[in-house]
Each structure stands twice: as structure tokens, then as C-alpha cells.
Write a structure and sequence with these properties.
9 strands, 10% strand
Length: 295
């Protein structure tokens, strides 16, 4: 059972240079060290990513990892549906997995399955986006989320030249999903960069839609971003030009661009505003490389 396995793991753990490696089911799997964090006050190694060798090679096969870290990996995709993701995790728990790494589609929707994992003594790592409303996360790993938002905003600042005194320029903000914990950090990082220029009038948001609660895009849905941009353009831009749109991923950027093109942006006389994004969606890559409809 999971409880017996956990007891055996704890009895057989190895400690070397302050790093805890669990043996048996967790044998030499550095991620397992994180689950011991609440029990021991020692340093914990940051794990290599799946498909990445600890020495830096990114061309390592899954077979190599099964041999190297003595583990079997079961990867399931939630297909953009929190219910599907929760059901998959519950099935994993029932099957007796030794640990879970969860990248939640909806940060607030994993509470029950994480509690179930805790009841079965299964450690949980929250990856990329933090699972909220639970005290049973053993470890959290993510990128510099505020830094990503800051990079997006800085790109706009640099290309408009507002730091050199140019402007004023019109900008609109299309943030991420309010249900996604990451989106709040993307937004904060971006606003830390943009706020001084909004305050001094170098950047202007004609719609007045600046607060995250107003400019967020549910489910990161490009069609919802497009609909909102349609409304903004028809209401606030009948006699002015939009110079930049802070869009916080590729999907909502494409939605905003579709809206802009529908009212004439994208021509030599009316170029598209500067837009931002992330995730390298295929459609966005094609636009960037010139194989699609270049913005």
C-alpha cells in the first residue's frame, strides 16, 4: 500500500552532502527530496526537466530516464479541461503512483484530488502554476513569472521609445485568465514596468480598462479576447489609433490581432499595433517567420 511504501521510503532514505534521496520507489529521484522538506531542514537539489540530462543535454530519451532515475513516468494531458485533469489525477492516485507532478489548468480546481493524494501519503509537486486552496503541496517549481510579464512590457516600452521621451501612445491591456495563478504574476510584472509611463502620460489607455479584474481573459480564450477587443475598438477608437496591445500569451494575442485586422489594421497605411505573447503557438510562429499572415 502507499502508506507501507512511504514508511519504507522514510526508513531507507539516504542523505549525502545535505541532499535527501529516497530509495526504493523513489530511488535516486531528486524530485523526491522535495517531499521530505517538511521533515528535514537540509538543502534540496533542483531537478532536471524531463528530457534534460543533469549535465545539460536536452536529447535524452524516456528510456534513459527510467534507467537513470529508476522510475516509470505516466504523463496525462488535461486537454484544457479542469474536470478531465482532476479525473486523470484521481485515476493515478487509485493506481498507486508514488508521486504526482501537477501543472494545473485551473489553479483552484485541484483541491479535492490533492487532499486525496495527501490521504494516500502521495507527495505532490505543483509545477509551472501553483495549485491554490490547499496546504498539501510539498514543492512548487515555476519560472520567473513576474519577469515574463516585465519582459513583455519592456518590449513595448523599448519599441515605442517612451523611455526616450516619445509619446503619448495609446495602449490596451489584454491579460490572462483570472483563474490562473500565473496570470496575476504576469500582470504584476508588466504593470511594474508600464505604471511609470501611464502615470506620466507617455502611455494612455483610452478604454480605462487597466485593473486585472477588468482586463483578464477567462480561460486564456482567444475568441473572448477578440470579442473584448472588438468592443474596445468600436467604442474608444473611432477617431484614434491604437499603438500597442499588451497581450500575455499567443492565443489571446491572435484573438486581438484578428479583431484589429477586421477594422483595417495590418496595412501599410494602418500598421498593426505592437503586440506581445508567449508559448510559441504554431500560428504565432508562422506569423513571426513570415509563413502566415504577417502582423
Amino acid at each position: 500500500t502507499s502508506k507501507k511504501r512511504r514508511k519504507k521510503d522514510e526508513e531507507n532514505h539516504q542523505e549525502t552532502d545535505g541532499n535527501v534521496y529516497w530509495s526504493w520507489a523513489w530511488r535516486q529521484w531528486p524530485w523526491a527530496a522535495a517531499a521530505a522538506q517538511k521533515r528535514r531542514s537540509s538543502a534540496y537539489p533542483f531537478p532536471p526537466r524531463i528530457g534534460q540530462d543533469p549535465e545539460g543535454s536536452r536529447t535524452i530519451s524516456d528510456k534513459y530516464h527510467r534507467q537513470k532515475w529508476a522510475m516509470e513516468v505516466n504523463v496525462q494531458f488535461g486537454k484544457g479541461d479542469a474536470n478531465i485533469q482532476a479525473s486523470s489525477i484521481e485515476n493515478m492516485i487509485t493506481s498507486g503512483v508514488a508521486g504526482l507532478i501537477i501543472s494545473p489548468f485551473d489553479s483552484s480546481s485541484m483541491t479535492k484530488v490533492i487532499e486525496l493524494a495527501h490521504e494516500n501519503n502521495i507527495p505532490v509537486i505543483s509545477y509551472d502554476s501553483l495549485c491554490l486552496n490547499t496546504e498539501y503541496i510539498d514543492y512548487y517549481s515555476a519560472d520567473d513569472l513576474e519577469g515574463i510579464g516585465a519582459c513583455q512590457a519592456q518590449y513595448i516600452v523599448d519599441h515605442l521609445g517612451v523611455a526616450e521621451g516619445k509619446g503619448p501612445f495609446n495602449i490596451e491591456i489584454v491579460a490572462g485568465d483570472p483563474a490562473d495563478n500565473n496570470a496575476t504574476y504576469f500582470y504584476k510584472g508588466a504593470m511594474d514596468v508600464l505604471s511609470p509611463y501611464l502615470d506620466d502620460g507617455s502611455l494612455v489607455v483610452p478604454s480605462g480598462q487597466i485593473e486585472f479584474a477588468v482586463c483578464g481573459t477567462p480561460e486564456w480564450d482567444g475568441s473572448k479576447a477578440q470579442s473584448r477587443m472588438d468592443s474596445i475598438l468600436s467604442t474608444y477608437y473611432t477617431d484614434r489609433r491604437l499603438d500597442a496591445v499588451l497581450t500575455q500569451n499567443d492565443g489571446i494575442a491572435l484573438g486581438a490581432i484578428s479583431s484589429l485586422k477586421s477594422v483595417g489594421y495590418g496595412s501599410s497605411d494602418m500598421p498593426l499595433p505592437i503586440t506581445t505573447g508567449q508559448d510559441c503557438d504554431i500560428a504565432s510562429i508562422k506569423i513571426h517567420s513570415g509563413r502566415g499572415n504577417r502582423p
